[in-house]
Amino acid sequence: MRAILNGTDVGRKNIVFGIALFLALGVVVGVPLTVDLFGGSMLTGEQYQTWKVVHGYAVFLALINGFFGLAIDRLDLPRRQKEVASWSILAAGLFGGVGRSILALLSALGAFGLVASLGEVACITLGTGIFLAGQMRERRKQSPARAAEARPSRTKG
Question: Residue ranges of the domains in the chain?
């Protein structure tokens, strides 16, 4: 675990959250869905399909959080922007992974699922926008140096 978290500061919470979300909803929910445990399925066909989607979203958001946590500290962004992006991606995981799972457990996914989806989309859009702005800023800084290297040198002769 230390090797994964080494060199991370702002993104540490995303990595830990991503691993926890993967273990909780990826493995704990995924195993009973994938393997017919306990002598057969305990869910109806509709419940099974709902939990497969919830499981898929949770794994997807766990991976996003994990990889985002590894990458955010490498960007040349002010700490405040990194924190906003980091918390936004983590909140997207809470809305989409944890929130959607709780709604499915309470059989309220149909009634409040749209709220969870809107919260997830808003948060992931904000976090991704800040992340991409940081990527473009780094690319602009590197472009003049690369352009100078690519130009052939002219010698007077």
Answer: 2-150
Indicate the residue type of 86: S
Per-residue pLDDT tens for 9-23?
888 999 999 999 999
The predicted model gives 68-83 an average pLDDT of: 90
Q: What is the pTM of this model?
A: 0.79
What number is the average pLDDT over the span 27-50?
A: 72
The terminus-to-terminus CA distance of the chain in angstroms comes to 60
| Measured distance CA(72)–CA(86) in Å, rounded | 8
Q: What is the 3-state secondary structure (H, E, C) of the chain?
A: CHHHHCCCCCCHHHHHHHHHHHHHHHHHCHHHHHCCHHHCCCCCHHHHHHHHHHHHHHHHHHHHHHHHHHHHCCCCCCHHHHHHHHHHHHHHHHHHHHHHHHHHHCCCHHHHHHHHHHHHHHHHHHHHHHHHHHHHHHHHHHHHHHHHHHCCCCCCC
Confidence of residue 104 (pLDDT cuts 50, 70, 90): confident
